[in-house]
Amino acid sequence: MGIGDRHQKKDVEAALKRAEAAGLKVTHDKNRHRWGWVICCPCNQSQAVYSTPRNTGDEASKIDLFIKNHRGHA
């Protein structure tokens, strides 16, 4: 992720950094309401990340759960 690819919500940005640290791929594609994806390359599953989530804590928790479920794959 480059500097211009940061998520505007601090909670979500922190979760995205944890995903990268766990070896998952974070992509920024800015498609309408979607900010991008967290991708587990070995199993090819992904988690959408939204630009303006209704609840930033819930969005971060979804990313953290994806990290937990895919940590061993990366």
UniProtKB/TrEMBL annotation:
Full protein name: Uncharacterized protein
